TrEMBL record:
It holds the Pfam family ExbD. This is Biopolymer transporter ExbD. InterPro entries: ExbD (IPR003400). It comes from Notoacmeibacter ruber. Belongs to the ExbD/TolR family. GO terms for molecular function: transmembrane transporter activity.
Amino acid sequence: MRIDAAIRRRKRMSMTSLIDVIFLLLLFFMLSSTFSRFAEVPIGSAGNAGTGANRPDIVATIDAEGVQINGEQVPADRIADRLASLREAGAASATLFTRDGATSQTLVATLERFRASGIETALAR
């Protein structure tokens, strides 16, 4: 008795799932990319910048020795009084600079005093 081997038909591979995956990848990359337009930023000449309109009213420096406000060393317990007098004189903005040796505790305490005084404060390094 002779038994013939069963003829196996090859199934055609479905392209639907492959197309779905490619479409999902395309959609992902389209949505995750940024669609921003690059624009030129106008830069004025140095002659236009001499007005000083953007200068802060108060410049404070925090270093290992303590806090200096407008170049004058101020003890930690007198910072609030000094800021109140500057606020009454019309100061509205301040920039705090940190130098080497400034502790984080001094920085946080000084920032709290500046914010409590109502003076707009920016932090620089």
